[in-house]
Design brief:
With about 500 residues, the protein is of the alpha/beta class. The protein folds into two domains: about 210 residues, Aldehyde Dehydrogenase, Chain A, domain 1, CATH 3.40.605; about 190 residues, Aldehyde Dehydrogenase, Chain A, domain 2 (3-Layer(aba) Sandwich). Helices cover about 45% and strands about 15% of the residues.
Amino acid sequence: MKLDEDLLGIQEVRSALREAKRAQKLLEQMSQTQIDGIVARMAQAAEAEAERLAALAVEETGFGLTADKKAKNLFVARDVYNAIKDMKTVGIIRKSESGQVWEIAQPMGVVAAIIPSTNPTSTVIFKCLIALKARNAIVISPHPSALKCSAESSALMRAAAEEAGAPPGIIHCLSHSSIEASNELMKHKLTDIILATGGTGMVKAAYGSGKPAYGVGPGNVPVYIHRSANVKQAVSRIIQSKTFDHGTICASEQALVVDETIKPQVIEELRIQGAYFLNEGEKQQVASVLAIGKGMNPKVVGRSPQAIAALSGIAIPGTTRVIIAEEISVGHEYPFSVEKLCPVLAFYTVKDWQEGCRRCIELLEQGGLGHTLGIHCEDSLVIEAFGLEKPASRIVVNAGTTFGGIGATTALFPSMTLGCGSFGGNITSDNIGPQHLLNTKRVAFGVREMPAAPGPELQPAEERVAEAIAGNGGFNRQGISREEVTRIVRKVLAEMENREGGML
């Protein structure tokens, strides 16, 4: 009898979690040197197979470009690895300067990893590296449309880890991928922490699972071009960033917000560098295919400008690198104003940086709260104002947001999972790394004594006597205050001490 696919998926989850939990207990006993050796071997394997995995992802999903997906795989295998290779994740990882507080790392346990279809191989490699670096096991739930390339990436990571001494079963990838299987994985008692990268619905499910979760929100990234910007350089960086892998990274630019004084110069430079500006009729045709309801149309995600134009029924030059539509409003009824994981941009004009500020906030509120903002500017006061006021976790200055947000061209922590903080309903605004998959215990030594509260037995003798006398009804009837009684008692006691001193 053939079992239902959903039941098969749920059973696979349970079996994978049991094996992963056993393997994790063994991995937890390993030394820092052993863990580092395992992670190094995984990174080496990812680097060697970066192009093959990239080609598999493009072939299976139809999204993006092989060369760019290879670059993403290499970013993880090189940049992310270099950022984490010397990180302490075993035993005492830090002591305070005084030595009175020790921080001890302990793994969280089993990581449930939800993988998107847009960046499947690089995200699998990334999550495997950071999970094992923190001595966790990982069970991967791939997107159904990227099942094969995700499974191949997982198998590569598992083989490399086990060859380097990791216990068998430390990495699993589900072969029966479904919403039911993902829900079982996220809610199961053996799952300890969730790393969710995907659509809004999946991220909400992760946070609603009752388990600790790192989820990431959408990235409707606005980019402000101030009148002080180096226009040629800004346009070059924006187009390189937006067209990378046909725009499938969620930190890619979504809308340009340009000062009106430099608008002609920006438009001219965009056209020189391969942008195609839609006329009003073409704009309506492209808008009709960008979204389905309030979500992105998967048929345009990660596709070339020419493929999007063909789907829209318009003709554009073969040399076009990005499609641009001028826009004046923001909202779901204006499809160019929302996240578009493809080489399509909205173009807004503003009078000054204050209006640009308001427009950028509108765009972030439309679906990118807490994610990323770009600004091209040479005025430090304007840059500071944007950094202080915007509800974005990453303010990328004079760099493409795709590369700047993930830490490829900025000094941010290199990561393929970008938190959006409470702005975007996430628990952190950080670029996620192994440090987020650790329980940090603290051993704290006593450094001071707690002062004892004064009691009656510590009260000076003369005050106790005065209190007793003042409390006598007879003195109170004569109108003598407690302070006067205290003065009298102190005088009597002093005279007695003087007499005793004279007798010696």
